[in-house]
Amino acid sequence: MSPLFLISQGDPSGIGPEIIAKTFAAGLAADCLVMGDVAVMRRALRQCGLSLPVVQVSRVGETVPPNCLPVFQVPGLAPGLADLALGQVDARAGAAAAACITAAVSSIQAGEAAGLVTAPIHKEALHAAGVPFPGHTEMLQALAAQGGAMPPVRMMLANEELRTVLVTIHCSLRRAIELITQESVLQTLRISHQALQRFGIAKPRIAVAGLNPHAGEGGLFGDEEQLHIAPAIRQAQAEGIGASGPFAPDTVFMRARHTDAHPGEFDLVVAMTHDHGLIPVKYLGVEQGVNVTLGLPFVRTSPDHGTAFDIAGSGVADPASLQAAIRMARRLAVN
Length: 335
What we know:
Blueprint: E1 5-8, H1 16-25, E2 32-36, H2 38-47, E3 54-57, E4 69-73, H3 91-109, E5 115-118, H4 123-128, H5 136-145, E6 154-158, E7 163-166, H6 173-179, H7 182-198, E8 206-209, H8 224-238, E9 243-247, H9 252-256, E10 268-271, H10 274-283, E11 290-294, E12 299-303, H11 320-334
Parallel strand pairs: 1-2, 1-5, 2-4, 3-4, 5-12, 7-10, 8-9, 8-10
Antiparallel strand pairs: 6-7, 6-11, 11-12
Helix pairs in contact: 1-2, 7-8
């Protein structure tokens, strides 16, 4: 039997259910099971003009007929989720999104599935529901702890041309600068090195982007490179990690970008802050970008976009990034 992958439904007021529906209708998720709400998925199929039977399964791993959309109805979801206004923040939607993620992780930890693909959630809806996490990454990190120490995790955004990993994620820029230490950069390099080896790259080449303009210009524009980033690179090199830098962040991504006409100099770029690292990848096209959480004891990927409240319910959402995330999950699970 093929490994089973779980897809968390995401925010029911966003485009997550729609792109899931389109992916199943295209026959690209035969090894997947939706953790969500049956009525929400039926509504999504109607919104997209698709005819596909929705099958409610009673347990994860249950055999389902071909050419259907299987859904595990997550216990405890608020009634009437399919009646919520589309494209609007709602605490009930945020609570449902969190419950689907929690149920999926529990199932994976029980050995019932090979990995998790998460549809987009809305951070304001999570907050309205009282969920104490700013996003998927932090929530998954806490769930993975299972009462023990939380594993160090990092966000990677990847497409066919560029991979980036972030030292800091969802926090203010002022706080992010405070979090950049020799240890946090070194830990990111270790996690990135191990991840690339899982991708089948025996000797990864990792470029480290600086924080300041021109990577600090020898201390003229900031000393974070001298105090924290460069020492972390030297320590990583001493451990056998192929890290180099720090490089000016405004040019290193061009050097790392891989195309048929221009093979990249690096396999991955480590960036210090959220926008430094994500803007270059997203500029290349969100339709093929995949978000991967590194450091978890299980596979987790997601599309490179949000809930798109502005088009939710119109049936025009592009499922390409979700489909890329499913392919990435399969690849990582094999390795």
